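Q: Convert this sequence to structure tokens.
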Amino acid sequence: MSQQSDAPFLVWLYPGYLDRALDAATWLDTTHELRKLGWKVALIAAGPRGLRTIDGTEVYCIPMPDIYLLRQLIFHVRCYWFLVSNYSRIDVILFDQMSAPWLMPISFARKLMRRKHPLLAIDIRSLHMPSPKKQGIKGWLRGEFQELAGKKANHWVDGYLTITSRMADFFHVRQDRLWGAWPSGVDLELFEEAQHAHSWPSQNAPVRLVYVGTLNVERNLLNLCRAIEQANAEGMPFELWLVGEGDELPELEKYADKMQGRIMIKKPVPHRQVPNILAQAHIGVLPFPDEIKFQVSSPIKLFEYMAAGMPILATRIVCHTDVVGGGQYVFWAENAGVSGLLGALRMIWQHREALMEMGTQAAFAARSWTWHESALKLKGALEYGLGGNLS
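A:
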């Protein structure tokens, strides 16, 4: 945090461990880019107390105890030392819905002191909508807490940022409170080597698909596995790598055991190793169903597949079509059922000689979806919230 002292100062809270989060690049890479754009950013996350460098980005860590229900309270109380110590210099405090209840006292204190700053802004990047059969009591409590926190925050928060404009519409964010939307992105340099490392399949060799992410039931991965099985039964050899962990892992492993190596379940890898995984495959897959949780999202993996020079197999839902537009590097599944996914696999098999060219197109399109571009949108939204008085 060595930016110039007169730069606008953002304190960004992440109430978890960034060295463990699958989507840590959202905070780490965007913070790095914001600092390059002239902002002073204190990114605060859970971890051993003090400054740490995580994937090249400096983060101020605060210990979080492993005590259910109390860990968030204790973490945010400990954050107050940093906030109070720097209170007079902070322009904006950015946080998610889970942090909202713990930061409400700052709004009251600011009113008592008759100060305008720091402004308090909620950044909404995901919906908590797990399968009712899978979430359990903890998941239910988390969802109820998040919904209640979001509703109560309407009375005191200064502004909202969202991952997409569709997310803002879903939460009915008032236009006078909406600062802007900023999507996910990708580090082109990290994935550049993967673009040139693919060994494209020969005429009758298997086409290898890869999915990297959470292996949860709502991701529709079992339907994808069934479609792979059907394609192979029709004489079209496909393989599938599923990289990650989640609540559907036992069912996926059981299914993979019957597939004679055509479906492989692999443990999650650090983000820096994801390009190595993608380089060994031919097509990145996003088989998500047409549900609100996905409609309002901005999937990081879509951009990473593109940056790795891979064609995409994706369901034709708005979070995918909003990005791709008329791009010719996607095989569309018209629905998330086995029939829709199988239809996309048949198209892949018919056009497998074009995979390398499609991957080149995808890599070119990824240039419009970097973390630098995302940071520019976030910077504009923060400056809008501050009244447009920053140069």
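The mean pLDDT is 91.
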